[in-house]
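Hey, can you fold this one?
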Amino acid sequence: MNNIMSSQEKSLDIGNLFSSNIDEFLQDVFLHLDPASLKNSRRVSSQWNSFIKDRVWDSRVGMEGLNKKLKLMWKEGTPASVRKIRSQRCINGVKCDMQFVYCCTMEGFIDVYEIATGNIKYKLDCFPDKRSDDGSDD
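Sure. Predicted structure:
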């Protein structure tokens, strides 16, 4: 008997995993991924996306596993260094990525700070047409 499978046969086998009534096994596999890999796994196919969303993130078993992993990361993870950022404006929202911190202000600006230095990189005016020449609101 020939043990070599064609690429079409292999892809059919992977596709059949989700219809093979092995949800617990697949949930366990996905729950062993780090958060970035789990998120990226949703992009593989619509079938993977549906499974991860419905049976991992939105399931009791999945949420328990993710919460357990989160608590473990809090207890045993390596803390990241934190730089304080001081703004002259009243901040009402903050987002960040691996390079910048984006501070949304009550005055309608977005101040962008570099994480590496803590220095301001950009000051973005969200409403430039509504401001007079002196920078105040109309």
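The longest strand covers residues 91-96. Let me know if you want another pass with a different chain boundary.
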